[in-house]
Queue: 2 jobs
Job 1
Amino acid sequence: MQRPPKVCLPFREADRRRRESRSRSSAFRALSTAIALIVLGLPVGSVDARGTKHASKSAAAPARAGQHMSFRASGYSQHGETAGGTRPREGIVAADNHVLPLGTRIRMVDAGPYSGEYVVKDKGRKIHGHKLDVSFDTRAEARKFGKRTVKVEVISVGEGTRSDAQQEPIPPPENKAPALK
C-alpha cells in the first residue's frame, strides 16, 4: 500500500494546525479529568490534566484571633518594598494571604531568641499554606535563623489589603526578636 504524497503546507499553516490539535487534546484531557474527579467525589481543582496533584489555595483555613498554629519558618533578607508597602525589616513576616492575611498580628513562640510579636506585611509567590518568611536586616541574620518549625498565636486578623497592612504598626523592639550580635 502506498502512502499518500506529502502535502507541503506553508510553515505558518502547519504550525497553526499543530497548535490547534494540541490545544484540543489538552482541553479534552482537562475535561475528562474533571469528569473523573467529579465521579470520584474529589475536588476538581486538586488535579490538572496531566494528573499532577496541586494543593488548593483554599485547602488551608484562614486564621482566627486567639488560634494557635504550627508553621515552617525561614529567614529572609531583601531590599525593596513589601506587599504592604513598607521596606522589609525586623518585626515583619511574609505569609500565605489565604492563611494569615496582610495586616495580621501574630506572636511567634518556641523560636528561641526570635520569639515575639510580628506583623504580616508581605506575601510571597512561593509561600503557600503554613509557611512563614521572617524578615531580617542582614543576610547573616537570616542565615542564622535558618529554617525551623515555630508555633504561632494569632493576636488579630488583618483584612488582607495593602492599606490594612500599612496601618498596622510594627511591634516595638522589646516585643520582637533581638538583633543578633
Job 2
Amino acid sequence: MGRAFTLIELIVVVLIVTILAGLIAPRVLDSARRQAEAEAESVARVISAAAQKDALSPRTVGVSYDGESHRLEVVVLEYVDDRAVWRADPLVEPAELGACELAAATADGAPLDGRGWLLAFPPSQARATLSLLVYSSGAERGWQIDLEPEATAARLAPAGGQRAITPVASRAIDLDDAGRGDEPW
C-alpha cells in the first residue's frame, strides 16, 4: 500500500503557503502604485531639467509631449541652414509614461492638447506656469506637477483620485492692488 500524507503534514503545507502568499501579495499589488509614482517623479525631473536649462542657458528651451508615444522630453531650439528646428536634449532622459497617462496639462491655466504639445521657454520672456496631472488607473491615484515661472524645480504633489488640475496660486503680490502702493515693503 502507498504512503499518503498525514493531516498534520497537509496543515503545515497549507500554513506555509498561506504565510508566503501573505508576504508576497502586498508587494505584487503595490507594484502598480510604485511604478506610477516613479513615472510621476520622472515627469517632474524632466520639467525641472527644462527649468534649470532655461535659467542657465541663453538658448530657447522647451518641453515637448507626444500623445502617441506618451513621451515627455526637454527640447532645445537650434538653427540649421537658417531654419529653426526643435531637437531633443541628449543630456536629459525623457519621461516615458506606461503605467500612467497625462490626464491634463495647462500653461497659465489654458489647457494643452492631449495629443501633443510644445511649450517653449524663450529666454527674454517670463515662463508660463506649467501644470500637469499624471494619473494611474491601476493605482487609482494621480499626481499634480507644477512649475511656476520663477522656479527651477517642479513641485510634485499627490492629487488622489482627482482628474482635474488644481490651479496654482501665484506668489506674486501686486502692492497697488492690495492698496499698499505707498507703503514701504
